[in-house]
Structures are given as structure tokens and as C-alpha cells.
């Protein structure tokens, strides 16, 4: 099967330290004063809002200045930029911090060896000396690199990279705030120093790879690699259809599966929809301009792409008297709170601005909250009422003071029966009948485990731990949802603590059936990573389970045929090392299954009895999501670091039954083809080679056939019009198994003029496609082994050129 890429890796966003991330109070500091993100466009705005202890830029262990305040609104000090233009001074601002020149008489704090930072040993580790308190979010970064030619030159990873030229006494960040030019993205996780040229460095971050030849003063973004981390993929019903993805720390995007222009799919063909960390998207199959996106912690928006308007649809309950709106990130929420972190982080709620609407109040009419404009390369500043301290309630059956937990990757899906019905997962399952304007909430569907009582690596949960709960805003949340395509109202929900719930009455009541999954450890808290309700039977569903967070790296795939009363383990011969992230049933063949694992893509032709790699031209990569386009039959796959891949026209797989495989030869149904027009407005030209171009979808249609054994003679494929006249003949491949040839909709080339000495051909200018046959119905004939096999094919007129 030809496999092609069709993705992008552009844009930027800021990953802020979650509120209440640190459980250790530094001397003289406040715990969890996660701050408000600075406005887009400010110098060095990326990530200034917060580490515990008022650390501002997440550049180093924050320490409040001697002149006081710190925490909320007070000045503080950034050890990782104490050699920058502001000398490390951070002016407090509404819970965040802003780089600016310090006031007269200001003195930086003294080095505190009791705090985290960088230490140096000159006797092979027998003793250590503290050199700085710079240490950016140790749980997430803590990368230290020393120039192999000069031990005084030190690089520390963080939101920006910090560089010291004096052995760690002073640092300057390699971005605007540090007096340098910013690289292509924040969140630096890898640093390489050229051992033969100390000015040549490379950094790997959440946006890709950046290279500097002047020690970080300027950067060259490497734009030739498809390295996007796409969590979930959806698609619309345009022709060609568009693909929608959420990218790690890169927002949500939409882009074409193919273009009508002469080139391939450019980054500029993609457009940003939502900001923050992009996860789930949902696009209305009846109106492609109506798109829902979700970023971290349940922040969900609905956008109208035609008008450019967006609204927040995050579920919100009425606030308790005297308090702001519902759902503070990291705050204790409901009984048995897994959210942890208590009251920490009120002044920023994991990066959401909460300036307005603080009074909250009781129930109000649910007025939609305007979503912010998307600004690529800047933090996503959420409006008041975006799930923080404000905004009118929109959960109709909520009680005053109800607060909800949402996973960093919150699932949101449209009903396959009615696109106005939307399902969204928190600790409860939310159902909307109007695409998120209002919601109805279920009961809490999680195990309601207080994660602060759970031992971590042998340390009891009630004991102080470094970076406790960092990176996990809430726990005990729904992470997967699926509604039956057969029968409305049968809906499944899986949680991050091991519950698998099913409702047969539209989400009113649920039955926990996860306890019936065989072969899992007793009392497990494995993620129910994916649920796929069957397209053929209302009581059938497929489930994958991911236990790697509990040090269980085995794959788990199950099927139930009785609404979860019992399950069959169909993991079979999947590699015994590598968790399963996604499982899908083919919508046209109940025995054709797909599984995305930590290391690749697999399929089964017999309902899970046996699995085979499906990785021809596909990289060894974690596969996070799988979608079969409902009209075109393309297999669309989202990967964890290699962008989006498309296998064009999987009709032969869908029709490869045992009966077909018993035949000597078989011609599969031929997918309708569109005689696409050339889009003159898509004539993009980019000079040089430093650009990524995705593979374009092939023009025409594939003709697929099966041979039980290799053909001994010629294989011919002919296409005839309605009158029986053969318009095209193609030589076919002859190997055993599935074969395919591409008809590009052109007739046979005309013969060359007599005596010209030219070969037959179409001529035409450079890059000009041959003239297509007229729209209509044609007959495809396969001739092999003295037998013929026929199937019709439709050629459609391109009526969708203006559909944008």
C-alpha cells in the first residue's frame, strides 16, 4: 500500500508550569504561585508566568527579592537570566512576572546552597560546591550541558535555554529576554554542542530542531522534517477532505489531504484553529466550517471558520457563594479529590487568565464566552469564564459549588447520529444537545482515588515529594469516549484510573464493566486508552488499555459482544512489549481491525486472532490515533513524532475476505474518481531546499486486484466508456497477493505523427496534467490467466473548486 505524509509542524505555544506543581516550599517562598501568562507580543512572554515560589519565567528556582512581596504580584528573581538585560529582576504583575530594569538600589539575592540549582565538583564528586540556583522545572527539564572545549561555558535547558560563560555565576537566556533572538519554539529538551566548533549548537524543543552558528544569538529553524506529535485525528467531508489534528504544545490545525495545485502540501496550506496544547478536534460532517478544538485541562472552543468567531464551551457549574467560577485547575474538586494540590495556583490556574468575572455569583443565563483569537507563537490567553474564576454556568443539572476535573487530554466527540450532540469527558461525562452551549452532566464515573494517598516509587503519597503532581493537573478523569454508530444513546467512557463505563440510556445511568477485563493486574489504575463501538452490532465494542504509567508495558486489546458483561482478550500475537494507544474496527469489514502501539501500526484480517505489521513505508513510531475516512476509505494515522500519514484507498483490505482469497483472481470495487481541476490560486513557489512538502494525493483512482499466485503471463487492465470503446489500457503487476495500478483518468496517448520519430505521448508544458476523460461511468476489465473480471467506475466532475 502506498503511504504518504500530509502534515505540518509549525506554530508555537507556551507550556506553563501547572498550578500547585511543586509540593516542596522553598525557604522564603510561596508554594504554587503559578502565574498569569503575559500578553502576546511582550518580549520574552513565553513562559514567564510561573514556577512555584514566584519564579517567574520557569527559568530557575524562583526566589523572592529581599525588598519583598514575591508570590502574587511581588517582584522576584530569575537565576537563569541574572546576566540578561534585566539582571534577573522580575516585576510582579497579577500573579505573573515581567522582565524589566530593576529599581535604583535593588540588589539581587545571595546564592542559597539549600535550594535546588547547579553544583560543581573538582575532585570527581567527593565534594560539591553550589554555583547557582538556576534549575528550570527539574521534573520536566533538568538538562545540563558543558562545552567540551571550555568548562566555564554551561547550557541549561528550560522554556528557553540559559547560557553561562563564567562557570554558572551568571546566565542569560537564549531568547529576547536574555538579549538574544528567540528560537522557533519554547520548551527545550535537548542540547548539542559541536566539539570542534563551540559556536555551533543545536537545540531540540517542542517545535522541532533549531541550529545556531553564533552560540545562540541567532537561530535557523530546520523546516524539512515531519516531526509533529499529533494526538488525535479527524477529517471533514470536503473534496479533497481536510484533516484536523491537535499537536503537542502547538495548538490545533486543519489542512488538506491533497491539493489541486502542481506541488505538494505545504505548511502554508495548514491553518491554526486552537491554541495551547492541541488534543481533540471535532468537525461537523454537515458543515466543515464548524470545528471544535480542545486544549489542556478541558479548555474547549467551538469555531465558525467562515466568520472567524469562536466561543468557549468548557462545562461550568454555578459558583459557590462568595467564590469565583467553577473548576480551578489543581484545586480540590469533589469527594475523594484526585485533583490534589489544594488551593495552590489560584492566581493563574495553570496559565489561564482570570482577571474578569471573579465574583462569580449564582446561576446565570448561559451566555457563550468569546474564544480568543489564535496567535501562533504566543501563549493562549483564555478569556474570563474559560473554566477559571468566572463566566456563566452552562451545566444545566449542576449543583452550586460543583467543580469538575479534566484530563490534560480531554476527549470531545460529536455523535455519529446528530452533529449537534457532543460528548465531553471530565470526571463526569458531559452531553450537549447544542454543540456545547449547554451541558448535562453524569455522575462521577471515576474511581475517585485521592492521588495524594498513592505511593510513588515507594514513597507514601502523604510525604513531601519533589515535583509532586507536576504535569498532571487533575487525576481521576475520562480519557476516551465512544458512542455506538448503530444505536443512539449507547455510549462508552474510559478513565485514567481504570474504569470502563457503559450507558444504554443516553448517558443517564452507567454500569462499570472495567472489572470484567481479563488479565489485568488486581486493583490496577491503567488508562482505558481507546474505546471503539462497533459499526455492526450495538453490544460490541473494542477496548485498548495502556499501563505504562504503572510500569506495565504489555499490550492489551479486548472485545465485548454483550455490552461489557464479558470480554475476550484479542491481543494475540501483538509484540509483547509496547502499549496499545488506539484500536479501531473498520467501518465496512467487521473482521478488519487496526491497532496503534508504542512502536507502530498493526492490522488484523480475522477479528484479532492474528495481527500483522502494516508499516510499508511507515516509520517505527508510537501511533496515537487511527481513522478510516467514512466516504473515501483512506486510512489516516496520527503519530507521536512523525506527523500524519495517509494510506490511500484501503478498499482491497476491506474486501479481502476468506472467499476472495480462495479465488484465483479477484477485481475489487473501484473507488469513484474526481477529475480535479487545477487550482490556479495554489501556484505556490518556495525557493531552496529547506522546506517540508507533504506528498500530494494521487490523481485519478487505484484499480486493485488479488492474485492467488503469481501470474505466468501478461496482466492487462482496460477501461472502456459507456459505448464499449476502450479508452485506456494499462499493464498490470503480476505478483501473488494484492496488486494495484493507478489510472490517472487520462485516455491512451495519441500515436506520434508518421515519420516523426517521436514516442507516443501527450506533450504539454512542464508539470501539465494530461487531459482527463469526460465525467461518466466507465467499465474496468482485468484480464489474467485467460479470464476477465469487470467492475464499474464513476468519474465525477469537479464541482468543489470554490469550496473553501
Description:
The protein is mainly beta and 804 residues long. Helix content is 1%, strand content 30%. The protein contains 2 helices and 53 strands. The chain has a 5-stranded antiparallel sheet with strand order 21-22-23-24-25, with no helix packed on it. It has a 5-stranded mixed sheet with strand order 46-53-52-49-50, with no helix packed on it. A 4-stranded antiparallel sheet has the order 1-44-43-42, with no helix packed on it. β14 and β15 form a beta hairpin. The model is unreliable at 5-73, 324-365, 372-390 and 761-768 (pLDDT under 50).
Keyword list:
804 residues; mainly beta; five-stranded antiparallel sheet; 2 helices; 30% strand; globular
Largest sheet, order of strands side by side? 21-22-23-24-25
Give helix % range: under 10%
Low-confidence stretches: 5-73, 324-365, 372-390, 761-768
Ends apart, CA distance between termini = 30 Å
Task: Please provide a brief summary of the model.
The protein is mainly beta and 804 residues long.
Task: Please write out the topology.
Elements: E1 3-5, E2 63-64, E3 76-77, E4 89-93, E5 96-99, E6 118-120, E7 129-132, E8 144-146, E9 154-156, E10 162-164, E11 172-173, E12 188-193, E13 201-205, E14 208-212, E15 220-221, E16 230-235, E17 242-247, E18 251-256, E19 265-266, E20 271-272, E21 281-284, E22 287-295, E23 299-304, E24 309-312, E25 369-370, E26 412-414, E27 422-425, E28 428-432, E29 440-444, E30 478-483, E31 491-495, E32 500-503, E33 511-512, E34 527-533, E35 541-546, E36 556-560, E37 568-569, E38 580-585, E39 593-597, E40 600-604, E41 612-613, E42 623-628, E43 635-639, E44 644-647, H1 651-654, H2 658-662, E45 665-667, E46 673-675, E47 693-694, E48 701-707, E49 716-720, E50 726-731, E51 737-743, E52 776-784, E53 787-797
